[in-house]
Amino acid sequence: MNAATPSLRPRSRVAPAILSGTALTYGTYDLFHVGHVRLFRRIRERYGFLVVAVSTDEFNAVKGKRSTVPFEERIEIVRACRYVDLAIAENDWAQKEHDIRAYGVTAFVMGDDWRGKFDQLRPLCDVVYLPRTLGVSSTGLKAAVVSRHGNAPEVRQFDAMALAGPSLDVGEARRPGGHS
Ligand code: C2G
């Protein structure tokens, strides 16, 4: 089997035998990007099991955030990431203590933009802040899409459709003449 032949063995997760402990992290993970992937990978390189809590759309409203991708799709994407062993919903600020006890968490981990914000959890488990991946963020991606593509005909048509309401879905709209 040479390097070009794709391995038929499923891409194994990090061998749990050499890693122990359960890590827990929280986030919105909107427009899932490499910063999120690298955070999950670095956590999974340190601990044997990763639980990720994904903020619901209702909780994001409490946080003053409105995500582009709805909760159901964000948590499906997070679940599909091979570094993630379990994904749960984040419904409020207060659930962290309950989740730490419920999942037997040994380390609560966040990116360092949250440094110091969760130190009150230290009596329950380790609290670890890992450096963020620089140069990428969901907010930055949104701004890039708007500035680069905001005026693209298909985007303007999509906006017009969204304003027109749910009568047409994208596919139909793009096929008035039967062409996609
Ligand atoms: N992150 C990162 N590098 C980036 C962007 C984000 O490492 N370039 C990390 C953040 O530090 C955070 C996680 O990815 O740990 C998720 O970031 P967000 O989706 O922005 O999460 P947020 O909305 O801040 O929610 O209860 C805590 C909140 O739910 C955190």
Considering the chains and any ligands shown, give keywords for the structure.
alpha/beta; 5-stranded parallel sheet; 7 helices; 5 strands; disordered C terminus
Walkthrough of the structure:
The protein is of the alpha/beta class. Strands 3-2-1-4-5 form a 5-stranded parallel sheet, with helices on both faces. The termini are far apart. α1 links the parallel β1 and β2. The protein is built from 7 helices and 5 strands; from the N terminus they run βαβααβαββααα. The chain binds [cytidine-5'-phosphate] glycerylphosphoric acid ester.
Write the layout of secondary structure elements.
Blueprint lengths: L21 E6 L6 H11 L4 E7 L1 H6 L8 H10 L5 E5 L4 H8 L4 E5 L14 E5 L7 H12 L3 H12 L5 H5 L6
Parallel strand pairs: 1-2, 1-4, 2-3, 4-5
The structure holds [cytidine-5'-phosphate] glycerylphosphoric acid ester.
[cytidine-5'-phosphate] glycerylphosphoric acid ester binds next to strand 1, helix 1 and strand 4.
Bound molecule kinds, no repeats: [cytidine-5'-phosphate] glycerylphosphoric acid ester
> Which segments are poorly predicted (pLDDT under 50) over 5 or more consecutive residues?
168-180
Structural category:
alpha/beta
Could you tell me how far the N terminus lies from the C terminus, measured between alpha carbons in angstroms?
Answer: 41 Å
Work out the strand percent. Answer: 15-25%
Biggest sheet: strands, sense, closure?
5 strands, parallel
Order of SSEs, N→C? EHEHHEHEEHHH
What is the mean predicted local confidence, pLDDT?
86
**Helical segment tally?**
7
Count every beta strand, where a strand is a DSSP E run of 2 or more residues: 5
Q: How much helix, percentage-wise, in residues?
A: 25-40%
